């Protein structure tokens, strides 16, 4: 059985997101570890925010116990309201979140990592700790906006560059999302619509039909227009199609790099309140 690690940050904002993690895990038949990691020089957090201090083991332990009690209360309340939930456990650690998660994934302890967003100015897109996790932890990384409410994954946009790695990633995505039987849109955004459409779109659709054993998947192209870049067009398409999830392959630089460096992406993604799932190539 898979194990999903949900890395919490601010406990007062975690209740709904723990519910999100639990319901998603129930649907994909996975266990959940609600994970609290304290960075040694930043008390009370796994590194998203906090004030630098000299580490005090007793203080770290006190904070961890308070977080544990709060999380266990949330889990108890959730299990009383929702039947059939998987195993949900609180886990804690001290150190660098990226390194700890990287090691646990490499040791096959976790199959999916879920991160808690926040609506402060230090949004997860621009936070070095979050980006360290996205870049270094070699498993699917799920970014959940702070106000997200869980919905079964019925419609997904996969941002494609028509690369060979997309085939493998789509197979993994289909396997993960199988319980939902979702519609998947493999979306490519280009500055040269006609060229891409003639030389790549038809060929890629044919490869998908041949190599991906899934019928409910379509290939679509959207041209950059009206002064908008690929990121903004991606979010516009996601809103128009009413999708539940945007999926990006880390190696698809046309999408990944622009999503994580664009100056206005923070406002766009906060606006649509969509989870983003980031895959790494094998």
Mind explaining what this structure looks like?
The structure is a single chain. By secondary structure, the chain is of the alpha/beta class. The protein folds into 2 domains: 143 residues, Rossmann fold; 125 residues, Rossmann fold. Helix content is 42%, strand content 21%. A 10-stranded mixed beta sheet has the order 3-2-1-4-5-10-9-6-7-8, with helices on both faces. Helix 3 runs parallel beside helix 4 and helix 7 runs parallel beside helix 9. The radius of gyration is 19 Å and the shape is globular. About 2% of the residues have low confidence.
Please identify the structural class as seen in this structure: alpha/beta
Please indicate the percent range of residues in DSSP E strands (runs of 2 or more). 15-25%
CATH fold category name of the largest domain: Rossmann fold
The biggest sheet amounts to:
10 strands, mixed
The structural domain count equals: 2
Mean pLDDT figure: 82
The CATH superfamily of the largest domain is known as HUPs
- By DSSP, the count of extended strands is 10
Note the run of SSEs as H and E: EHEHEHEHEEHEHEHEHHE
Q: Give start-end ranges of low-pLDDT stretches.
A: 120-126
What is the overall number of helices?
A: 9
CATH first level of the largest domain: which class?
A: Alpha Beta
| Share of helical residues | 40-55%
What would the principal axes of the Cα set say about the shape? globular
Strand order of the largest sheet: 3-2-1-4-5-10-9-6-7-8
Distance between the termini: 20 Å
* CATH architecture verdict of the largest domain: 3-Layer(aba) Sandwich
Computed Rg: 19 Å
